[in-house]
């Protein structure tokens, strides 16, 4: 008899995981706290509710978001198929009628005989094979249980992420590699420096303090900004506050002038390959268009490609590089995590983590090797980033080409590079799936990736 799998959370990740397990013939008990539990961002009782935008981002396979959708099609995502059936006009993006989409997912789960839907809040980690997909607003009871399970210092409750830029888009004629003199252990290239003279700094400061901000929701506003001050709030305390804080030029000499800059914005390597850098100290609550406008005033970032923009919101997530293994499982247990609680941001990324969780639970139950997606793929590179112990400090990330392994051979222009990334990723994934038919077929032996439309 196939053992029952418990999935906690009826959002995108949990719903995808439950349906993917059932497609493989594995029975599931799916817990969802609504309508009884506290869910301040939700408005309905339906599963897989989209609480923010109704857009699942770009469809073009030469974009990271589009490539992820291509990968999920190959792996047989149930929710992605439903999203396509609920699509509304959105140019080159996949946007859905959110009510129709959630209702369709809910109906599919209620109609699936192998899924038992339980409307109840879970406050302890269940026994047996478990997938925790509780989402970024994980309930206090379950948060406490998970904190005890992984260690209190390994669970965060606020997402205060600084923007990240692609290394290839940084103007290296202006920006230079150098660590502060007191950071003698840092390797050359770990930090890049964007020097500012007095006029440049003051122009930047004026635009920063006057830029449009995102309004935090009522239930998170007070807690969020007492936990971490956005860079624009720090700047409002005085024109020189940043110069004596995150932008202090102490220990830095601009090789172009031979002098210490008036201020300096430091960029820290986001990964071992140094394909992406984050803006140190730039946690922000500016709107995304304003981030692009204001932060592009920083010398050397005028044409920067922002692979992640800054966010500040209520977000429960674990320190994945130090809590989970390379398959998002808690080492030594039969518990694994999926969705935004792993620190993987985005709707489609949540769906992808549900696909991956289901495949790996199936592998554990049936004695197969676990799934380790090719590092070259959109989701494979995100999983590698999220579970790499060198990712420090860890902040939530979505799929982007800034964290995929560089291409071999001659350097390509941006558009050509992205096409090459996509072709390489899809070929590598197809070859991998062909080698793992035991994990990517349904209960009748049909490939899960075979389109039914």
List keywords for this structure.
13 helices; 5-stranded parallel beta sheet; FAD/NAD(P)-binding domain; alpha/beta; 16 strands; 6-stranded antiparallel beta sheet; 453 residues; Elongation Factor Tu (Ef-tu), domain 3
Secondary structure: number of strands: 16
- Under the CATH scheme, which architecture of the largest domain would be assigned? 3-Layer(bba) Sandwich
CATH classification, class level of the largest domain = Alpha Beta
Gyration radius (Cα, Å) is: 22 Å
Give your account of this protein's structure.
The chain folds into 2 domains: 5-159 and 314-435, FAD/NAD(P)-binding domain, CATH 3.50.50; 164-309, Elongation Factor Tu (Ef-tu), domain 3, CATH 2.40.30. Helix 1 runs parallel beside helix 11 (347-366), helix 2 (64-75) packs parallel to helix 11 and helix 2 (64-75) packs parallel to helix 13. It is α/β, with parallel strands linked by helices. 33% of the residues lie in helices and 16% in strands.
Short summary of the structure?
With about 450 residues, the chain is of the alpha/beta class.
Topology:
Blueprint: E1 5-8, H1 12-23, E2 28-32, E3 55-58, H2 64-75, H3 78-85, E4 87-88, E5 93-96, H4 98-111, E6 115-119, E7 129-132, H5 140-150, E8 155-161, E9 164-166, E10 176-177, E11 191-196, H6 198-210, H7 218-227, H8 231-235, E12 263-269, E13 276-279, H9 288-295, E14 306-308, E15 311-318, H10 320-323, E16 335-337, H11 347-366, H12 378-386, H13 414-435
Helix pairs in contact: 1-11, 2-11, 2-13
